[in-house]
Write a structure and sequence with these properties.
transmembrane transporter activity; Growth Hormone, Chain: A; single chain; 77% helix; 221 residues; mainly alpha; transmembrane helix
Length: 221
Amino acid sequence: MFLILVPITVAALIWQWIALPSLPAQKRLRFSALREVLSRPYFFRAMAAATFTWGSAFTMFTYLRPFLEQITGVGVNSLSLLLLVLGCAGFLGTWLAGRLVRQNVERLLKLPPLVMGLMTAGLMILGSNVIATAIFMFVWGAMNTAMSVIWMTWMTQNMDDAPEAAGSMMVASIQTAILLGAVIGGALLDSISIYATFLGSIFLALLALALVGNGKSLLKP
């Protein structure tokens, strides 16, 4: 089964090699450049919001399978189908986000934590129903991929004078969030229950929403 992904991955790599333009560095990246971008209040706040947003997503997503097995009660075939639904929704999310970010991107920054937090709450309430679970997972999956498009668009618009440093900090923030999300979710699952893990995800989403606000504070002056 996994071997099927090999030609698809190779094709994607070739496509990117041909389609993506060359982006040479404007200047050598120094550690002082990282300190400089972090000293900007709007960027520091944005990185905190992005960290909580991705942390919320991966606190839930990392432990989605035990939820589906224990609460929804699906078998292997149904589990695979639900995960396929989530993955296919990602294509729609990417496409929609690409069209929506042409407008004011700051208005979209609150959508990922808001929508994904609501979908997680919906799973907690109606997770025993397979149809409801599929719907919640579809919406969650679409917003999960839209999240990257929205935040990367924000970065290109508001950190255009330091793209290398800002990009490095964004990648570091996302990777840290994924790690912490998995750790926090696992700790809650082991010590309390899967519901505690999902509540932890919702709590991180609320922190992200509080930092984003109306989005104006994350814009370049």
